[in-house]
């Protein structure tokens, strides 16, 4: 079924072919029928749409204006048909996600599993790493969704949701600190420390805390990734500082203990869910954003060591 009025279809074809006769051949319609429709269109518009030349036709200025609208409408119709077709057969596409490693361990997989039930033909491209890398990936790799800790105010992205996660100490479950309700930095420095590697630490809120309170002789190891850091703590090599988000599952399953730092030592980390500035995400990406907002808020509501009013925005 034609989505455009018949006269406009004839008009577009006549301009393409430069001749009513050739347009008639292309459309397999009598030249007289096309000519009649075009004359009626000119009468309705109140202007001449063609210059009749000895060897064909060409559009007038008014014809060019009409032609631009007709072809724009054709493109919109084609796009509409494609999107409707996608909905009929299932939305397809790839969602590109850059996320802190702590998010990729639990929250992100659960959100993607739920999303996959709704959009089984959508796939995902995942980028993880230190905080600086994933925030720059928003631009370098054109990620559709970014989740990062303590992002700078100058980042060129729209923040759609934030939650806060307190910093604490992770240790083995039989470690002396595991029995404490809160710990101070002074108490922590009595034990060997596993600290973030330089590239991770540089963009972390821990940088100033460690430089002021921790001596080189107390550092037993440096780890570039949260997973490596936790593995060394589990082995009994030392203790480490980490947000509750980074260790929630390990604590729940009894592999590690987490004790919050005493209030006032360091501000809780802010976890931001972001999208590229000025873009309207597709339906599947919007659905993922809503799932992530829910999972982040659920996490924030049950974590210890932080007042309820400071949990999320």
Task: Give an overview of the whole structure.
This protein has 313 residues and is α/β, with parallel strands linked by helices. It has three domains: 6-88, Winged helix-like DNA-binding domain superfamily/Winged helix DNA-binding domain (Arc Repressor Mutant, subunit A), CATH 1.10.10.10; 93-158 and 274-310, D-Maltodextrin-Binding Protein, domain 2 (3-Layer(aba) Sandwich); 167-260, D-Maltodextrin-Binding Protein, domain 2 (3-Layer(aba) Sandwich), CATH 3.40.190.10. It is 45% helix and 22% strand. The chain contains 13 helices and twelve strands. The strands form four sheets. Strands 4-3-5-12-6 form a five-stranded mixed beta sheet, sandwiched between helices. Strand 1 and strand 2 (56-59) form a beta hairpin. Helix 1 (6-17) packs across helix 3 and helix 6 (107-118) runs antiparallel to helix 13. The protein starts with 5 loop residues before the first helix and ends in an 11-residue tail after the last helix. The relative contact order is 0.13. Residues 306-311 have low confidence and may be disordered.
């Amino acid at each position: 079924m034609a989505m455009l009025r018949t006269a406009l279809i004839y008009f577009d074809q006549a301009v393409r072919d430069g001749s009513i006769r050739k347009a008639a051949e292309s459309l397999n319609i009598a030249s007289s029928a096309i000519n009649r429709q075009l004359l009626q269109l000119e009468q309705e518009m109140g202007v001449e749409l063609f210059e009749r030349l000895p060897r064909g036709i060409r559009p007038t200025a008014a014809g060019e204006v009409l032609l631009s609208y007709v072809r724009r409408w054709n493109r919109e119709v084609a796009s509409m048909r494609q999107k409707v077709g996608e909905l009929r057969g299932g939305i397809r596409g790839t969602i590109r996600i850059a996320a802190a490693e702590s998010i990729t361990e639990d929250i992100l997989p659960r959100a993607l599993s739920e999303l996959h039930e709704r959009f089984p033909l959508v796939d995902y491209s995942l980028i993880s790493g230190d905080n600086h890398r994933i925030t720059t990936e928003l631009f370098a790799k054109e990620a559709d969704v970014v989740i990062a800790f303590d992002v700078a105010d100058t980042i060129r992205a729209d923040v759609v949701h934030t939650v806060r996660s307190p910093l604490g100490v992770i240790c083995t479950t039989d470690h002396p600190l595991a029995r404490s309700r809160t710990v101070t930095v002074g108490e922590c420095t009595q034990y060997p420390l596993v600290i973030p590697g330089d590239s991770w630490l540089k963009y972390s809120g821990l940088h100033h805390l460690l430089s002021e309170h921790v001596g080189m002789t107390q550092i037993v190891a440096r780890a570039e990734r949260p997973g490596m850091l936790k593995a060394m703590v589990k082995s009994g090599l030392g203790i480490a500082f980490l947000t509750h988000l980074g260790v929630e599952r390990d604590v729940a399953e009894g592999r590690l203990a987490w004790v919050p730092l005493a209030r006032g030592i360091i501000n809780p980390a802010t976890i931001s869910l972001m999208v590229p500035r000025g873009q309207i995400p597709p339906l599947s990406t919007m659905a993922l954003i809503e799932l992530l907002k829910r999972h982040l808020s659920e996490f924030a509501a049950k974590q210890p060591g932080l007042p309820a009013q400071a949990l999320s925005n």
